[in-house]
Amino acid sequence: MRTPGIPRPAAALALAVSLVIACQAPAVNTGSTAPAATPGTTARASPAASPAAGTSGWRRIADIPTPRSEVAASEGHQSWTFFVVGGIGGRERVESYDDSTGRWERMPDLPIGVDHPMAATVKGLQSNAPQGVFVFGGYSGNATARSFRFDLGTGRWNEIAPMPGPRAAGAAVAFGDRIFVVGGADGSRLIAPTYEYNLTTQQWRTVAAIPTPRDHLAAVPLAGKVCAVGGRRLSMSLNLGTFECYDPQTDSWTRLPDAPTARGGVGAAVYDQRLYFVGGEQPSGTFREVEVFDTRTNAWTRGPDLPTARHGLAVVVSTGSKAIDAARNLVTTPPRLLVLTGGPTPGGSQTAVCEALDLK
């Protein structure tokens, strides 16, 4: 997390502080119900959000080599490979996880070190528009507008046009030949305008502002829209469950039912028309809640709790794969929700723990 109005320390000092915090024992959220909304929030409990049956279904997978929090994550070469980018504890570090082999690989470092960046991947366009893994902004001393593209073919980072203004702790979503950056802050103020990056023209423009400005939120493509969920108003004491979706066709936002648990420092991913909303932090500890929004019922339910409560985490969906192991056996991995690294205690802590939940 980042405290508004306080100058950021030098990178070496920030890393030292992060390592000290990481040595503390993780806080455990033992409650079976969602915490009450804090003053200024709009979240409320949903009758559909029934209590989860423990952490059934989760499994531990390979630890990330560089424990970090406040990271960005996005798909890599395949729909079962993922990049974890930047973050407190490794601000220039980029590592790739292959869910078919369970292995991590070190990738070329970011050109600049950042925490709280935003990332999205564009692949499969039938055009000459640049594609690959895009990383925007983050805190690099102060909030930055600098943006980069990792070419999955050449394995190199290239700097692209900067965002219209500096931004960190927001979210980026790829949508066809465009990428939308929503929410976030510049260090002391929330950023309301939504930025659209056009891959064909390689230029930015500003589109409709998010109705509820917030940072430390998550955003995903869902039902033809860019949907933002959770976040906070510059303080982990002002968490939100707000759920709003942007329609690129009409350049307008609509509000959906709030998430049952108000929280910031969150992650989210989508599979089979369901949004999985995971993790987060508040002053008293971190969240293990997994809440699921189903577009077919327009309602939230409770999923199996995350075994390792944390915030500033990477949440992605692996669509499943087939691979041949060392004994020449065919190994099939099912679609599953992956939760990678993050902070086990509020603030700049880190864990190497990564966990997976099979999806039906």
CATH topology: Neuraminidase
CATH fourth-tier homologous superfamily: Kelch-type beta propeller
Strand elements, count: 30
Most strands sheet: 4 strands, antiparallel
User: End-to-end span in angstroms?
Assistant: 33 Å
Provide the gyration radius in Å.
19 Å
CATH class: Mainly Beta
Structural class by SSE content: mainly beta
CATH architecture: 6 Propeller
Protein model, in words:
By secondary structure, the protein is mostly beta strands. It has a single domain (52-358), classed as Neuraminidase (6 Propeller), CATH 2.120.10. It is 3% helix and 37% strand. It has one helix and 30 strands. It has one helix spanning 11-22; strands at residues 58-61, 72-75, 81-85, 94-98, 103-106, 118-122, 132-136, 139-140, 142-143, 147-151, 156-160, 171-175, 178-182, 194-198, 203-207, 218-222, 225-229, 243-247, 252-256, 267-271, 274-278, 281-282, 285-286, 290-294, 299-302, 314-318, 321-324, 330-333, 336-340, 354-358. The strands form nine sheets. A four-stranded antiparallel beta sheet has the order 1-30-29-26, with no helix packed on it. Strands 2-3-4-5 form a four-stranded antiparallel beta sheet, with no helix packed on it. A four-stranded antiparallel beta sheet has the order 6-7-10-11, with no helix packed on it. A hairpin with a 5-residue loop joins strand 27 and strand 28. The protein is globular. It starts with 10 loop residues before the first helix and ends with a strand. Residues 3-53 have low confidence and may be disordered.
